[in-house]
Design a protein that fits this description.
Elements lengths: L5 E5 L5 E8 L5 E7 H49 L15 H64 L1
Antiparallel strand pairs: 1-2, 2-3
Length: 164
């Protein structure tokens, strides 16, 4: 009849009761009888506020999630837009918020931007040096050819002069 110290009992007149058995002293129990009509009324009165509370909780979670998403997404979108313009190599990135991780990301990107600028400057200097060497070789070649002809002409004239 009793399962987990709770049982449903119907009296002879058909009235349903919920019977709760609780221990009181050694080998003694106290039985509490709750009329079924009162319990079902209590259940009905408790369900409405519970549903309302659940819906309010869901709305609250949604609103908090939206706020968190916006506070995280907006600075990331700003930083992403600035990073897309990094190809201009002009200005350092400025994070929209002072949050630690985004600031570290902006600093890392700014460090890479500085390294990229330094590497670009080195590459331009190396290209200038290569072009200067190439120009020097070309000028030397252009000067050497006529001088070589003049030298051969002078050597030929000296040989002619020595024979006489």
């Amino acid at each position: 009849m009793f399962r987990d110290d709770v049982a449903e009992v119907t009296l002879e007149d058909g009235t349903p009761y919920l019977v709760v058995r609780t221990p009181s002293r050694e080998n003694a129990f106290v039985f509490l009888f709750y009329p079924g009509a009162i319990l079902s009324d209590q259940k009905e009165r408790a369900v409405g506020p519970l549903i309302l509370l659940s819906l309010l909780g869901l709305v609250g979670v949604f609103v908090v999630g939206l706020i968190i998403a916006r506070t995280i997404a907006r600075p990331i979108e700003s930083l992403s837009a600035q990073a897309a313009r990094i190809k201009d190599l002009r200005s350092p990135l400025q994070p929209a918020s002072a949050s630690g991780e985004l600031r570290q990301l902006a600093e890392a990107l700014n460090g890479m931007l500085a390294d990229l600028k330094a590497t670009q400057a080195q590459a331009m200097e190396a290209e200038k040096g290569r072009l200067m060497r190439e120009l020097a070789v070309s000028v030397a070649h252009e000067i050497k050819n006529p001088l070589q002809a003049i030298k051969m002409l002078i050597d030929g004239v000296d040989d002619e002069f020595d024979r006489r």
